[in-house]
Design goal:
By secondary structure, the protein is mostly beta strands. The protein has six domains: 307 residues, no CATH class; 74 residues, no CATH class; 201 residues; 153 residues; 92 residues, Distorted Sandwich (Coagulation Factor XIII, Chain A, domain 1); 83 residues, Immunoglobulin-like (Sandwich), CATH 2.60.40.1930. The chain has ten helices and 75 strands. The strands form eleven sheets. The chain has a 32-stranded mixed beta sheet that branches. Strands 1-2-3-4-6-5-9-12-10-11 form a ten-stranded mixed beta sheet, sandwiched between helices. A hairpin with a 7-residue loop joins β2 and β3. The radius of gyration is 41 Å and the shape is flat. The termini are far apart. 50% of the residues are buried. The N terminus is likely disordered.
């Protein structure tokens, strides 16, 4: 028995229509809903397309690279079942996605149509996807619907009848634009080269891109292009080509379609290019889709080496083939008859699924076969081997029964005959309806919108076990999927569409049930949101428990809530709580086990009264929003990570006790503790900044403080590592630092080195402390770094023959004992990374003073470490705590000690002033001007070299454009070292619209000077030089000058004699002048 005969065993178009209607997909985002006949819809679209009339000419706009990419992305998203992505991508090019229900067939299939959203330009055509094709290799293309009369409607008829995967109908007349394509070939239709609006002959148009996307998804795609021609004397009715004039290397589908048409109408005459070699007209050898499908490396200009048989170019005369709908149906029926369907098996009688006698022709279904349960038949699944591709029913009298412990694996869609169909008549204990395979989308169709009706499909145990793709459900309105025992997502995704619900209901009963939801390690349970709900009906209570070993995303705005008895997130599992309206998550207790993750992605207080979250040790709660609400009961023994990556990353840290707290993303996270708080295990700054609000609070990292990166700002609070002399805690540090006060605890014992990674936003200044003899009693040491000038009080000092004559202007450390710490001897190490002016680390000293007192050299000097760019000073044998600073001998220049730095606007100029208390080896000061984060050199001023005396400096920056500027001072030492200081901001007001001529500078000059001027209004301006007797001797500027701008020009005095000259500016009917002196 051949496939052709098998197909014709049933009414061809009815069987095809039924299969085409298996998949009724509900997208993640609502598209435009329509219903009716897709053939009629295409007919109306073609009627509105621009033709060749003058008013229509040029409405086809060649898509840009971004637009054609968006078109391709939309097509690919449709093919992948990503309908929300398709909607977004289509909207970016002013197209839309229509969810079209084909009501002329029963059951009614759903198509997805990519079409223009409004009249206008960019008529790029129509792409239609059948998400459940009968013949998934077929792509029907109608490139010339306006020129080849009725071919657009015929393409739709072929698409529907054959159950093809896709249809494309071009959007304009083929000659709509006058711009020629660069692809090879000519046409008598438009005259000369093919046009860019001729989709059959371009490679940067929407048809070609759609062909590429479809063929990428299925490399065995077969393209059928229906065309039309005006029949002349001696012409056949049909002209056919495969893209070459040679026989194909694969199946000769073209000849098969010819024979199929001849079977339908034996009056037709044909010419087939690779058979009738004398025929050379209209055979499609320059068609770019044909060249691409046949494997050309350059479809625009190069013919393929051979034909593979998967491109069918069919030219038809209008009489007998395109005139009427029945004429057009001939090619549709021929295509459907010739190309094998994804085979259909129909029940022959009631019986065992695995018995050959149950099925027509004795073929037991496998995963490749579609199955239809015929009228009045009940087929019983008795083992775990039963499978099919898609399963649907002839009417509501057909049923299946799942015997105890049996499994039916469905690799496509499951479609009850209607929303009022009890499709599974019996469901034994332990029986499973399993959805498997790799289809992008599988759908349980015809799910009813009713919470109490029993005349509908119920399900006891559904298993999603897909290697790829998703299972979803669809039906009337906000459909209710009734589950009695279990929804298990082992692998793949179970997708709850927008506004759709999961109801716990006893099997074919008005009573409620409490099914469990299990998400395995390879599974994903996703709710799209909207008014979706999860509950038992009719009690409105919770379903059973949810176990998440994979990923589950919950979201709803329904007042009926998400009602789940308990949720357990196991190791490797992730529970994501997205947009849920306030108090609409009724999940009793959520327990996150070690290795599990719960993510909060909503700012709403989603928790129903009495809700609890138990975060076990090793579990993690991730906060991804600016603020978050914890459950009313929060047992926190795990890690809470603040991980907002959107916008500026700013977050509010909830003021609760933490076991472990991690700052995990860039941005400032602000914690305002109402009282002292303890992080009992680990406080980690992995990225971003933790800033403490309030004042006078202590935050204790009792176990471990981990400063991997970025900063922790204590403000007027204290951060403590450890909590007592008995619990001293640990600290791991990378590049992170603490801006503020850090406390560390010490027992009454000799200690290891304890680092205090303090500093400022721009300075990393860690200091380390080690007790070499035990304190008499334990306690704490608090350290901070102060970014201010240490005094020179007490200097010079002599330390073993080295004269210490200066302190570093970089800042100083303050260490204070507390909490009963007394006695003991310690050593200390202090680092000043990137401090300029260090040329000899060995002479660097660590000085000590009582607060506000004179610097001393307590203890013993230890040799300096590090490098000139990262110097480390050390001292040992110290007792007592106070201030510490770096001191140095004269061979370490260190930068100047600045006492002030200001920048003040003065009209269009900025006056920069600074003072130094002393300088050491300062060669010059560079003044840098900053705009939008970019620094440019404004000028330089020579320094005083080495001086212990105060000095003052001034620099005038003359600007031409008003605005906000920043200025900073860069000290350059005699070794070329550079040290940039803090910046200041100044705003320069707009230059007035008036005539002004500023004094030149310098004046006197030789040989050049600079002149600045403004004009009252836009227009011509002249700036000329006159001698003392009024003779014009030089033109400095002659041209157009804009108002509101400080114009700056150079005056070259070469060729002029020394003397006094008059500089005169003329603009806007007014003049201004000033005297200049040239002195040679």
């Amino acid at each position: 028995m051949t496939l052709r005969r098998t197909i014709r065993t049933y009414p061809l178009r009815l069987a095809a229509a039924a299969l085409a209607g298996i998949m009724l997909l509900m997208p993640a985002k609502a598209q435009v809903p329509m219903s009716g006949s897709v053939v009629a819809h295409v007919d109306s679209l073609v009627g509105a397309m621009p033709g060749e009339a003058a008013a229509d000419t040029g409405k086809y706009k060649i898509p840009s690279s971004l637009q054609i990419a968006a078109w391709g992305n939309t097509v690919r998203a449709l093919l992948d079942g990503r309908y929300a992505d398709a909607e977004d991508s289509a909207a970016s090019i002013d197209y839309r996605i229509v969810r079209f229900t084909e009501t002329t067939l029963a059951p009614s299939p759903v198509y997805y149509i990519l079409e223009k959203s409004a009249a206008g330009q960019n008529y790029w055509g129509v792409f239609i996807l059948n998400p459940s094709p009968v013949r998934r290799r077929l792509f029907i293309q109608s490139p010339h619907p306006k020129y080849d009369t009725n071919t657009g409607q015929q393409g739709a008829q072929i698409f529907v009848t054959a159950g093809a995967r896709a249809l494309y109908v071009s959007g304009t007349h083929r000659c709509n634009t006058g711009i020629p394509t660069t692809c090879s070939g000519t046409t008598s239709v438009c005259g000369g080269a093919y046009r860019m609006s001729d989709q059959a002959h371009v490679v940067n148009g929407p048809l070609y891109r759609a062909t590429v996307e479809v063929n990428t998804v299925d490399p065995q795609t077969i393209v059928v292009q229906n065309h039309g021609f005006g029949k002349g004397d001696g012409d056949p009715d049909v002209i056919m080509g495969n893209g070459r004039t040679t026989a194909p290397t694969g199946t000769d589908w073209l000849v098969a379609v010819r024979d199929g048409l001849a079977d339908i109408d034996n009056t037709l005459t044909f010419k087939v290019a690779h058979v009738d070699l004398d025929w050379t007209e209209l055979i499609g050898t320059t068609n770019t889709q044909g060249r691409y499908i046949n494997g050309s490396g350059n479809p625009c200009n190069s013919s393929p080496a051979s034909a593979n048989g998967r491109f069918l170019h069919i030219e038809q005369a209008k009489p007998k083939l395109r005139e009427t709908q029945s004429d057009r149906q001939k090619l549709a029926d021929a295509v459907a008859a010739v190309f094998p369907a994804d085979t259909l098996v129909v029940s022959a009688a009631s019986g065992d699924w695995s018995s050959a006698s149950t099925w027509t022709d004795g073929v037991v279904p496998d995963s490749s076969l579609h199955v239809q349960i015929a009228s009045g038949h009940t087929v019983t699944v008795t083992d775990a081997a039963a499978q099919c591709r898609t399963l649907f029913y002839a009417d509501t009298t057909g049923h299946i029964v799942l015997a105890p412990s049996s499994t039916l694996s469905v690799f496509g869609d499951y479609t009850p005959n209607s929303t009022a169909h009890r499709s599974v008549l019996g469901w034994g204990s332990g029986a499973v309806l399993r959805f498997a395979g790799s289809a992008a989308v599988q759908t349980i169709n015809n799910i009813r919108n009713n919470n109490s009706e029993t005349n509908m499909s119920f399900f006891r145990h559904i298993v999603v076990d897909k290697s790829a793709g998703q299972l979803t459900f669809a039906g009337s309105g906000d459909s209710k999927l009734n589950i009695t025992d279990t929804l298990e997502v082992r692998n793949g995704t179970f997708f709850v569409p927008t506004d759709f619900d999961i109801n716990g209901r006893a099997f074919y009963s008005a009573s409620d049930a409490s099914p469990v939801i299990i998400v395995g390690t390879g599974g994903n349970f996703t709710m799209a949101g909207g008014l979706s709900q999860v509950m038992s009906r009719p009690s409105l209570g919770p379903v059973g428990t949810m176990t998440v070993a994979g990923e589950a995303t919950l979201t709803t705005t329904s007042s009926n809530k998400i009602n789940i008895d308990d949720i357990e997130v196991t190791s490797g599992g992730t529970l994501v709580l997205e947009t849920i309206s306030p108090a609409y998550l009724n999940a009793d207790t959520i327990t996150v086990r070690p290795g599990g993750i719960m993510t909060m992605s909503t700012t709403n207080n989603i928790w129903a009264a009495g809700s609890a979250v138990v975060l076990e040790p090793g579990a993690e709660l991730r906060i991804e929003t600016s603020t978050a609400h914890f459950a009313p009961v929060f047992e926190n023994a795990g890690t809470v990570a603040y991980n907002r990556v959107a916008a500026d990353g700013a977050q509010t840290v909830n003021d609760v006790p933490y076991a472990s707290l991690r700052i995990a993303s860039a941005g400032v996270k602000t914690w305002t503790p109402a009282s002292d708080r303890t992080v009992s295990d680990t406080l980690e700054i992995a990225a971003g900044t933790l800033s403490l609000g309030s004042a006078g609070r202590t935050i204790a990292a009792a176990g471990l403080l981990k400063l991997s990166a970025d900063t922790l700002i204590t403000g007027p609070n204290t951060l403590s590592v450890g909590s007592s002399a008995a619990v001293t805690g640990s600290l791991l540090t990378g590049s992170g630092r603490i801006i503020g006060t850090l406390k560390r605890w010490f027992a009454a014992a000799v200690s290891d080195s304890a680092v205090f990674p303090v500093g400022t936003a721009s300075k990393h200044r860690p200091v380390s402390l080690r007790f070499t003899t035990a304190p008499s009693s334990g306690g704490s040491v608090t350290a901070s770094f102060h970014d201010s000038l240490p005094s020179l009080n007490g200097l010079p000092l002599n330390d073993g023959g080295t004269s210490i004559v200066k302190t570093s202007p970089d800042g100083f450390w303050r260490l204070t004992a507390g909490d009963g710490l007394t006695g003991g001897t310690y050593s200390i190490t202090a680092s000043s990374k990137d401090q300029s002016g260090i040329s000899d680390v060995s002479t660097l000293r660590l000085l000590k003073r009582t607060e506000g007192g004179a610097w001393t050299l307590d203890g013993a000097h230890q040799s300096g470490l590090g490098t000139e760019s990262d110097p480390v000073a050390r001292r040992s044998g110290l007792t007592g705590f106070s201030d510490f600073a770096h001191g140095a001998a004269s061979d370490n220049p260190m930068p100047a000690v600045l006492t002030s730095f200001t920048a003040v606007a003065d009209g269009p100029a900025v006056i920069v002033r600074w003072r130094t208390a002393s300088e050491e080896g300062v060669m010059r000061f560079d003044i840098e001007r900053g705009v939008n984060g970019t620094w440019d050199m404004a000028g330089s001023v020579e320094g005083n070299g080495s001086s212990a005396r105060p000095a003052g400096y001034e620099f005038v920056d003359r600007l031409r454009v008003p605005g906000e500027y920043r200025y900073r001072l860069v000290q350059v030492d005699r070794n070329g070292g550079r040290s940039a200081g803090e910046s200041v901001r100044v705003t320069v007001a707009g230059i007035p619209h008036r005539l002004s001529l500023s004094p030149n500078f310098p004046n006197p000059f030789n040989p050049e000077t600079t002149v600045e001027f403004t004009v009252p209004k836009d227009g011509p301006a002249d700036l000329r030089v006159y001698s003392s007797v009024g003779q014009e001797v030089r033109t400095v500027f002659h041209g157009w000058a804009a108002a509101g701008t400080q114009h700056r020009v150079r005056l070259d005095g070469r060729g002029l004699s020394s003397g006094v000259y008059l500089l005169r500016l003329t603009a806007g009917g007014a003049t201004a002048s000033t005297r200049i002196i040239l002195m040679k």
